[in-house]
Amino acid sequence: MIMPAKRIIPCLDVKEGKTVKGIRFEDIRDVGDPVEMGRLYSQAGADELVYLDITASHEKRKTLPQLVRDIAANLNIPFTVGGGVSDLDDARILLEAGADKISVNSAAVRSPELIDKIARNFGSQFVTLAIDARKEQQGWQVFINGGRIETEKELFAWAREGQERGCGEILFTSMNHDGAKKGYAIDALDGLSRILSIPVIASGGAGETDHFAELFRRTDVDAALAASVFHYKEIDITEMKRYLSKQGIEVRI
To answer: Where are the domains of the chain?
Structure first.
C-alpha cells in the first residue's frame, strides 16, 4: 500500500494585516507581509500554507476577504484560512475569495453544529477543525480566543466529536510547546492519530529538523506545521525534505 507523502506546512499568524509570531501565544511580534511570505514559501517547497487571523475571534471581527484574494493570486499551492469564521456565510465568502480550506476553532467550540453546516454545504474536505489545547493536571484542556479562554472541552473527546460532525482534518496546537522549539507534543499527537481516521496536523514546538523526523517516526500524523523556524530561516524546507527522505520518510521533493 502506498502511503501518502507527509506534508510540511508553514503557518502564518496574521494580526492587523501583518504576519506575527509569539511564544506560547504571547509576546507577539511582526515578522513580515503575509502575501509576500506566502509567495516565497510556495516557491521554497512548502506543500500547503495555513493563515490564521489570531485576534479575529477575540476582537469579534471577520478575516478580511481582500487579503485572501491577494494570497490566492500569488500562490500555486493549497492554503487554509481561519480566524473569525462563525457562520456559513463567513466560510462561503472566504472560499469564494480563493481559500482552499476553512479552519474553524472558537466558534465551533461555542456552536459545534457549525462544523456540520460547513461540511454539509461545502464538503468535509473544506473544513479543518483547529484545536488549541494545554496540558493541565486533569489532562489536555481546550482553549479558545487565541488561547485566552479555557473551556470545559477535553482534547481527545473534542477531536473525535469534530470528526463525527464532518470535519476533514484536525489541526492540533499544543500551547505548552508553541514557540518553545523543544519538539512536538508526541504523546498527544500519537493519541490523536490513533483514535481518528481523518488526517492530523501537528503544530507547536518545532525547533530543528530532527523534531520533524521524530514526529513522523513516532506518530501517524499526516502533516507538520511550523512557523518561526521557517519565518526566521532557521530551517530550509527543501533541505529538510531531503533529510527526511534520507530517513525513509515519504515527502514531496
So the answer is: 7-246
